[in-house]
Each structure stands twice: as C-alpha cells, then as structure tokens.
Amino acid sequence: MSFVQSPHSLLEPQISEFFDGCPVPAFAIDSHHVITHWNKACEHVLGVQASQMVGTRNQWKPFYLYERPVLADLIVAGSLENVVGVYYHDDDKFRSSVVIPGAVEAERFFPHLGDSGRWLYFSAAPLRAPSGQIVGAIEVLQDISAQKTAELDLRRMHQELEMLVVKRTHELATTNAKMEEDILRRTAAEAELVRRNAELTELNRKLSMTQEQLMQSEKLASIGQLAAGVAHEINNPIGYIFSNFSTLETYIGSLLRMLGAYEAQERDRGSESAARELAAVRDEIEIDFLKEDIPALMSESREGITRVRKIVQDLKDFSRADTALEWQWANLHQGIDSTLNIVNNEIKYKADVIKNYGALPDVECLPSQINQVVMNLVVNAAHAIDGARGTITITTRVVDTDVEIGIADNGSGITPENLSRIFDPFFTTKPVGQGTGLGLSLAYGIMQKHRGSINVTSVLGAGTTFTLRFPIRHDAGDDDEQGTSGNP
C-alpha cells in the first residue's frame, strides 16, 4: 500500500526523534488511517520493523489474523459508541480514559506474540489540529504479561494454601483423637506423640516455606497493581508534550511566513506594498504573543520530560533487587521520596502528604524492603481516607541508636477488635478480591529481619499512626540468632 501524505503533518522531525526515543511502544496514524510513526520500542515488542509498517494501513496485522480496526482507527473514524459489542468484550476491559479526554483503553491476550503469548494494555488518544479537528491518533502499548502471571501465581498459591490448611486441620483432628486414646495407654502414647510431633514439625516447615512464597507474590502483585497508575503518571506529561509540539509546529509555520515577508521587504527595499504586507503578516500571526508563548511551551515540555525521567528513575530505585539480602548503607529520605512518587497515583486524589523529615544519617538496611513497607503503609493510609480530602504525615527522627519512621493519616481509623489482628497473615477488612491480607504481615516480617519493631495506634473516626523503629547499624550476628522471621 502506498503512503498517503496527510494534509496536516502530524509530527515534525524533532518530534519524530523524540517519538523514536520513547521507551514505551507506540505508533501513530493520520486522518487517512495511514501509519506515520512506528517507534523502536514497538519494533522490539511486536517484532515488526517500522519500514514494513510506515505508510501502510496494516496496523492490525501484528495483532490479529484478519483485518479489523485498532483503537487508533476507531478514534480517527469517530465510531467508539458502536464497537464494544462488535470488537471488544467484557474481558478486554474496554473503557474511556479518566485522564485524557477522548482517549480509550483496553487490554487483551495475544497467543501468537512471544514464546508463550503476551498480555498487552492499549491506550489510544486523538491528535488534533489547532482548530480542534482530529488529524490522527497515537496508540501506546504496554506489556502486562508479568502482572497477569503474578496474579495467576498468587491465585494458585492461595488455592494450594487452602488445601494445605484443610489437610493440616484434618491431621490435627486425627492427632487429638489418638491422644485421647493414648491417655489410657501411656507407654504407647509416648511413641505415638513423638511420631506425630515430627509430622507436625515437617508440616509447619512446609507451611512456612509456602508463606514466604506468598509474601514474595504479594510484593510482585502490589507492583503490578501500581503499574497502571505509573503509566497514567507518565502519560500525563507525554500528553501535553505532544500537544505543545503540535502548537509549536503551527508557530514555526507562522514564523516562517514572517521570515518570508522580511525577505520580500529586503528584495523590494523601500516598497510601500512590501512594507504593508510585512505589517499585515506581523499583525496576523501576533508576533509579540509568539515571542512570549514559545519559551513557555518549551519550558513546560522540558518539565514534562524531566517528570517522566524522574518517575522511571524512582521506579528503578524502588524495584532494585536485593535477593541476595545484601545489607547496604542507604538514604532513607531518598527511598521514601522515590516510593511516594511511585504511589502518587494512589494518593494524589485522596490526601496531601506532609513530610516532617528529621536529620537522619545513612542507615544500614535492605533498602527495597524498607521501601516495600513504606509503600504498604502509605497506600493503606490513602485507602483509609474516605470522603473529604485528608492528610498523610510522614515523620522521621533519630532515637538513641535507632531511626524511627512515623506514618499517620486522619482517615477512618481501625476498630479495637481489628487492631489486634491486623498483622495476622490473610486478615483484611477489604472486600473480596481487593486485598490479600499479606501487606502488614509482610511489613512485620521485614521489621523483624531488621531487628526492629512496628507499632500502631488508632482512634476510630480520627485516624491511624504506624511507627517503624530499627537500628541504624545492622549487626550481622543478629541474622544467626533470629533465624526465620515469624508473625505475631
């Protein structure tokens, strides 16, 4: 299919360079449904070169076995209202974007992508001319296979744990029945009791291993749940950067017209008609306004690029692996700030964050595990705020040879009967499907590993405060004494 040149060029060469440098897979089409851009990240994920796609209407081919519109086509065609039942179903999670007006989102599994198929999340938004007319659309992809795999693994482990609990309950009942009989036969009971204790010890060991696996799955699941929020946080600045460049394209065209008028004035020096034409062009394009607005647009775009780079760096810092349990000297404030940036989408609509940071030295710890605890507590605090906008206060200080982190909210509080159970594994007050009940249990285990403590105070209707306290310096000898961390 030959390339159809759009009457409105969607992107200048400078924007094309930025587009190709974007780490998120994305492509763009014009008002004729012709592909104008297919970036390198798209080539990597879909395995199709830009040279095969740009200038064609084959945007459907990497995804489907038959020709059908993708989200960007639907936006250009303006036929969103009629597609839900034709091309998208409930399991595709087709929906309008809550962030970008006129944009839509969906997700679907593609079995032919990669070695074993891939789950992809799509987000498409219109590209408009200064007049507001849609001149194309951009579609962004995200591979969410890891998140879906984590969800399936967590569900499977839940089922295995339930079966293990049923088995253990049955064995305990059998043991109790035999112990009643053994009271009458004390000699035989001693041998039977030793055997049963050995079985229970092995069963508890297996249960502890399963619990450790579940806690790791909880960490992966929580990161997966935040992925969509991080995507929105990145899409926001990218959205207005693209909008700014579209406006700059128009401005540059106006400036080129002004330059042409000056050249005509230079050729016809002293000509009254050329001078009048130059003055008319200057008035028409509002040159004084352009001189003010162009630096503002460039500054705003630079700020957006900085925001994207900061979010990506914070996500990298938050997720850094410490699977070898290597203790490091870390700046806690930097870790808290990175974590707050990652969970910003979870809290920005609910509460304001107040930081009361004290003067802290570097602390020897497992940084990503401390970040995990802070993330769980901050997200829980945001979820506890219902109704009016609240506040989440983070306080740090040094107490003797320890550091202390306090996370307080003015949310709904915790009832007295639940307060004593909040660190129990699988205990949650959230509706089914919205919480695993492992977050606070995981936090407790991490504090034990750091030879520290986690305490909570709460007033129903007034708010809750969690206090973390652990040593500044890690004593390697504590690891041998502590063994496997448990829960209260």
Offer a concise description of the structure.
This protein has 14 helices and 13 strands. It has helices spanning 13-21, 40-46, 50-53, 71-77, 145-182, 186-267, 272-285, 287-319, 332-342, 344-347, 367-384, 416-419, 439-449, 477-482, and strands at residues 26-30, 35-38, 95-96, 104-110, 118-128, 134-143, 328-330, 351-356, 363-365, 390-399, 402-409, 453-459, 463-471.
Describe this structure in words.
The protein is of the alpha+beta class and 488 residues long. It has three domains: 13-143, 2-Layer Sandwich (Beta-Lactamase), CATH 3.30.450; 145-319; 321-482, Histidine kinase-like ATPase, C-terminal domain (Heat Shock Protein 90). It is built from 14 helices and 13 strands. The protein has a six-stranded antiparallel beta sheet with strand order 2-1-6-5-4-3, with helices on both faces. Helix 6 (186-267) runs antiparallel to helix 8 (287-319) and helix 11 (367-384) runs antiparallel to helix 13 (439-449). The longest helix has 82 residues, at 186-267. The chain is elongated. Residues 1-11 and 481-488 have low confidence and may be disordered.
